[in-house]
Amino acid sequence: HEPSSDELRAWFEKNTDEFALPSRVSFRHLYFGSDRRGARAHDEAVAALAKLAGQPQDAKLAATLADPFMFQDYYGDRSAEQLAKEFGPQFATAVAKLAPGSWQGPVESGYGWHLVFVDTVVPGRVPALEEVESDVKTAWLGEQKERARDEAYKAMRAKYTVLLPAPPDQPPASAAAPPPAQS
């Protein structure tokens, strides 16, 4: 049956985590590669951060301090999950804690060290039911279908008795002995 709006709202309120929108961040980064700089990468990122103090994210100086990065220099509107896939979970967690508006770091990734300038953070939120109503209805119908299938299976199973054969008697010890060796 089609859910009433009250049924749908009640179900949505119990399952809001399924529809929560993650926080998203947009940032520029400067890369200090461990492959090029070795053990100096972290310290050189710290030194570059001191030179960038108070500089805007598009400062021309910034590009002269860092190594070229194989992907993008700017990442817009990315969730922590997306960042974890690209840079590793440690990087994603660290960037999520940075306040917007200044160069910060160094932050370690699977590639090396980065200075990061967060320009925007969109906090995560649970959308209003009206924003995701069609998705909620689809999920509700899917749950009802699964519940009906489970009930039908239980009803069918209740009609049957399963009998298993008794285990065969253990063979006598003599039968288990290997045949005598032929000479």
Protein architecture, described:
With 183 residues, the protein is α+β, with helices and mostly antiparallel strands. It is 45% helix and 18% strand. The chain has helices at 5-14, 34-37, 41-52, 60-65, 80-87, 89-96, 129-158, 173-176, and strands spanning 24-33, 74-79, 103-108, 112-122. Helix 1 (5-14) packs across helix 7 (129-158) and helix 5 crosses helix 6 (89-96). The longest helix has 30 residues, at 129-158. It is flat. The model has no long low-confidence stretch (mean pLDDT 88).
What is the topology, as strand order, of the major beta sheet?
2-1-4-3
What low-confidence regions span 5 or more consecutive residues with pLDDT below 50?
Answer: none
The main sheet comes to: 4 strands, antiparallel
Shape: flat
Structural class given helices, strands, pairing?
alpha+beta
Order of helices and strands: HEHHHEHHEEHH
Count of beta strands: 4
The rounded distance between the terminal residues' Cα atoms is 81 Å
Using the CA coordinates, give the radius of gyration. Answer: 31 Å
